[in-house]
Amino acid sequence: MSFSVVQGFSKSLAMTVLSEIGDKTFFAAAILAMRHPRRLVLSGCLSALIVMTIFSALVGWAAPNLIPRAWTHHITTLLFLGFGLWSLWDAFHDGEAEELAEVEAKLDADLKANGGITKDKNKIDDDLKKQKQPMLAQFFSPILLKAFSITFFGEWGDKSQLATIGLAADENPFGVVLGGIIGQALCTTAAVLGGKSLAKQISEKMVALSGGVLFIVFGIQSFLSKVDS
């Protein structure tokens, strides 16, 4: 494995983990897993994140072929520095402190709109249906599609998606995809298995601080590195 792949992998893995822990999609996966079969929620959320990671890396990989590499390099540098300052601002101004409550309120509103079924009854009904359905039908169940759509559109235009595009434009795209997928799998699995209890124990301020410092380090490294011709 070449050094460029390892570097892209390590940067993408670290960036993904620190961007996704405490994110809205992390909380959504945790809450959905409390109400529906975990296997379906994990499959839906993770599928959406893998599709988004590959798509973002492809956009980043294609960018240097459409515009001069020097431009993409400088844009990537500015993105990393900007996201770093953004994350630090969130950390010191509690910009993400209410995300768990916000996501839970939105999902509760959707639940009431679908007939006002209680969480416990909904969970039992889902488990019974899961036992009766064939495997193929479960893969196209409304629960899996709901988890997929919530995660996909929640990530669209998010900080982590734009950062993945910038990273793939400046690093080996294969390493970026591999690191991103593994990072997404780790975070989503933790959210689904840990549930809301894990989400409540996460210090969003420390995650935002760590992510902000990491983005700034990436930005400085990008600024100091030479542009490949």
Largest sheet: none
> Rg, please?
19 Å
Number of domains: 1
Low-confidence stretches at least 5 residues in length (pLDDT < 50)? 116-121
Run of helices and strands:
HHHHHHHHHHH
Taken from the alpha-carbon principal axes, the silhouette is globular
Oligomeric state of the chains present here: single chain
Helical amount among residues, as a percent range? over 70%
Question: What is the average per-residue confidence, as pLDDT, rounded to a whole number?
Answer: 78
- According to DSSP, the number of beta strands is 0
Q: What structural class do helix, strand and pairing data support?
A: mainly alpha
Into which percentage range does the β-strand content fall? Answer: under 5%
GO molecular function: calcium ion transmembrane transporter activity; manganese ion transmembrane transporter activity
Pfam families: GDT1
Organism: Coffea canephora
Subcellular location: Membrane
Q: What order do the helices and strands come in, and which of them pair?
A:
Elements: H1 3-20, H2 24-35, H3 38-66, H4 69-93, H5 99-113, H6 119-132, H7 135-139, H8 142-155, H9 159-170, H10 173-201, H11 204-224
What report would you give on this structure?
The structure is a single chain. The protein is an all-alpha fold and 229 residues long. The protein has one domain (5-112, 138-223). The chain is 85% helix and 0% strand. It has eleven helices and no strands. It has helices spanning 3-20, 24-35, 38-66, 69-93, 99-113, 119-132, 135-139, 142-155, 159-170, 173-201, 204-224. Helix 3 crosses helix 9, helix 4 (69-93) runs antiparallel to helix 9 (159-170) and helix 9 runs antiparallel to helix 10. It is globular, with a radius of gyration of 19 Å. The two termini are 22 Å apart. 41% of the residues are buried. Mean pLDDT is 78; it is low at 116-121. It holds the Pfam family GDT1. Belongs to the GDT1 family. This is GDT1 family protein. GO terms for molecular function: calcium ion transmembrane transporter activity; manganese ion transmembrane transporter activity. Keywords: Membrane, Transmembrane, Transmembrane helix.
